[in-house]
């Protein structure tokens, strides 16, 4: 790295710079400037009209460099001075500096000093008897500096000014400069994973609006914001009868969005079938045992992103994508007709809500007639699909298969069901589709669950 440090150098001839300036640069670079040339000389720096010293250097086999090469060596050495952020190991015995002084000088220049050599080590400062650390550094191809080379670096005053890191701005760009009266003067417990923001972003929004975040339930806590996989702290908030806001409810405060999307925003077959196909295909399914025939789903992929609030209400990320699929089922080439009310409705989005102890307290559903096909987003869109049919009652040709979706965690439990049912009556040649989402919530009467 430092090609001049520790070298014995003789200067002779005429240069563009003053000789005194060149000799000062050599000294600063850690070289020892000599007046006479001998076999112990390492380098002859030769300018114009170098004379007899040039011939003697050639006879002795001493390395000769000109002024341009000297400047290049200085430049190369200067580039090696940036040790900010490098991991450096110091090993061996030193005669001109103490180990403590070396380590302090390195740290002042932004280096991280460690005690062992590894693939993460950037530089080894090696004194005498460096031993195994030197061998390991050589085997790993790590840069190595001697004591003289290090002194040359330090003499060149190449200290890198290490600025203190600026506080990171977690505020989402779209909320810069905005405040929300809903948060002013309130202290929130925040627990669980959020999807629309990181927790630091949510904290930045609240604090900019005059609110604050607490890490535990205190007397001053006025409410809680609960994402997925919330902690035991939420039970404490419920036990104290504090109001709890879901992420969707907080988004309503921030964006003023409506409680529920309009019918046109729901990804049902009626809406999806009106859109042009980006891609089309067929998926063939096996039929139940004892039922003969070909069951085929004819589908098309369309450019439809469901209303954001739809996924929030149903508590699932299943709908959080840029495309949707709509399809129709055919048995032996004949289109299956919507079943109506006999099963669950031809196309139904069903939300069930339970207290954690299992009691049902509410829910809701959106039904569509299925005449234009149904949302087949959860079906495996591949040339052939094998499904497990379940018979719906004895002596019947009604069967269903389920598409299980990943459950959404609510604290220490998960939703009991989040799936899609496809129901087919092979005798009547009808179908029905229903999406189930079961959501558990903490009961204010029993916040610790069972």
Question: How would you describe the overall organization of this protein?
Answer:
By secondary structure, the chain is α/β, with parallel strands linked by helices. It folds into 4 domains: 8-79, Rossmann fold; 87-155, BRCT domain (Rossmann fold, 3-Layer(aba) Sandwich), CATH 3.40.50.10190; 173-255, BRCT domain (Rossmann fold, 3-Layer(aba) Sandwich); 263-441, no CATH class. The chain is 22% helix and 29% strand. It contains 11 helices and 27 strands. The chain has helices at 19-28, 52-60, 67-79, 99-108, 132-140, 147-155, 199-208, 233-239, 247-255, 269-272, 308-314, and strands spanning 8-12, 32-34, 43-46, 63-65, 87-91, 112-114, 123-126, 143-145, 187-191, 212-214, 223-226, 244-246, 277-285, 295-302, 324-331, 334-335, 337-338, 347-355, 360-368, 374-375, 384-385, 390-391, 398-404, 409-410, 413-414, 418-425, 430-441. Strand 22 and strand 23 (398-404) form a beta hairpin.
């Amino acid at each position: 790295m430092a090609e001049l440090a520790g070298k014995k150098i003789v200067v002779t001839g005429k240069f563009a710079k003053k000789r005194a300036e060149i000799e000062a640069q050599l000294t600063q670079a850690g070289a020892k400037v000599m007046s006479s040339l001998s076999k112990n000389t390492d380098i002859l720096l030769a300018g114009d009209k170098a004379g007899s010293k040039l011939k003697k250097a050639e006879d002795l086999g001493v390395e000769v460099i000109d002024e341009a090469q000297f400047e290049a060596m200085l430049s190369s050495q200067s580039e090696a001075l940036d040790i900010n952020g490098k991991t450096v190991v110091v090993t061996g015995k030193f005669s001109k500096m103490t180990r403590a002084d070396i380590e302090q000088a390195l740290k002042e220049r932004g280096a991280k000093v460690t005690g062992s050599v590894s693939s993460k080590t950037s530089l080894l400062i090696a004194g005498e008897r460096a031993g195994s650390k030197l061998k390991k550094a050589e085997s790993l191809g790590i840069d190595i500096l001697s004591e003289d080379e290090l002194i040359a670096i330090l003499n060149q005053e190449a200290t890198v000014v290490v600025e203190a890191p600026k506080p990171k701005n977690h505020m989402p760009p779209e909320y810069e400069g905005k405040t929300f009266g809903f948060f002013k003067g309130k202290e929130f417990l925040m627990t669980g994973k959020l999807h629309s923001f990181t927790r630091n972003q949510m904290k930045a929004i609240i604090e900019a609006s005059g609110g604050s975040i607490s890490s535990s339930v205190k007397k001053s806590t006025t409410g809680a914001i609960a994402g997925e996989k919330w902690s035991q702290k939420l039970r404490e908030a419920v036990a104290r009868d504090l109001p709890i806001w879901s992420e969707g409810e907080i988004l309503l405060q921030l964006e003023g969005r409506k409680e529920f999307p309009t019918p046109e925003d729901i990804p049902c077959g009626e809406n999806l079938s009106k859109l042009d196909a980006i891609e089309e295909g067929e998926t063939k399914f096996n039929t139940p045992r004892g039922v003969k025939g070909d069951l085929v789903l004819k589908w098309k992929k369309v450019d439809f992103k469901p209303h954001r609030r739809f996924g929030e209400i149903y508590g699932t990320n299943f709908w959080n994508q840029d495309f949707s699929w709509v399809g129709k089922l055919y048995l032996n080439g004949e289109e299956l007709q919507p079943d109506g009310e006999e099963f669950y409705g031809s196309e139904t989005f069903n939300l069930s809500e339970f207290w954690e102890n299992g009691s049902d307290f509410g829910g809701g559903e959106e039904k569509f007639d299925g005449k234009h096909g149904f949302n087949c987003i959860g079906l495996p869109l591949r040339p052939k699909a094998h499904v497990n049919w379940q018979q719906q009652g004895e002596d019947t040709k009604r069967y269903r298969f389920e598409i299980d979706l990943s459950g959404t965690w609510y604290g220490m439990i998960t939703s009991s069901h989040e799936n899609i049912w496809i129901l087919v009556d092979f005798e009547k040649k009808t179908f029905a589709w229903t999406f189930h989402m079961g959501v558990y919530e903490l009961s204010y009467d029993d916040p610790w669950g069972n």
